[in-house]
Structure formats: structure tokens, C-alpha cells
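Example record

One chain of 106 residues, shown exactly as stored in the release files.
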Amino acid sequence: MNLTDASAESMPDAAYAEVDLSTITRSERHKLLSAERRRHVLDVFDAESLPIGLDALADGVGEREAADASDIATAVRVTLHHQHLPLLDDLGLVEYDPVARRVRAP
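Predicted C-alpha cells for this chain:
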């Protein structure tokens, strides 16, 4: 993610090269970061390059949420698909294709 505005300075360790948070409002940024799972999604985006498949994204988020990612991988996949990725797409931060189950940079 490209965090070029001044408010990005308050988000340490964020080097998200492919998603530009400067295009969203402060309120949208707060909404984006209000859910721990979305913060994990952004962390996976920081560690992996886009495009990324839903399964790989869910595994990465699952690893950050639990010691045994296989226990929660399905739940992560479902919430990413129905809740978190559509919001990121609506904000213009990523392009999510729910049919192909792929996330890519806008």
C-alpha cells in the first residue's frame, strides 16, 4: 500500500506497496482498520504480492489469527469473501473478483 499522506505516519511497519490508502478519507481509513481481520489482510498484502488467491489470503490471515490455521481457514475464507474483501474493493484499495476468488491491485 502506498501510504503517502501524513496520517500514514501513525501506522508503523506499513509498507503496502500495491494498495494506495491515500485515496480514501480518514473516516474510511478508520473503518478499514477497525476490524482486526482486515488489519491481518493488509499485513498479508504487505508480505505477499498481488494478485493473490482467496485460499492463500485466507491461509495467511489464519496464520496470524491462530496457532493452527487449518482450524479457522474456512471461517476466514467466508468472512473475507463476504465482508472484508468487498469493503476493500468498494474503497478502491484492491480489485476483488468474487467469481475467480482473486485479489489484485487496482
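Notes: Residues 69-90 form the longest helix (22 residues).
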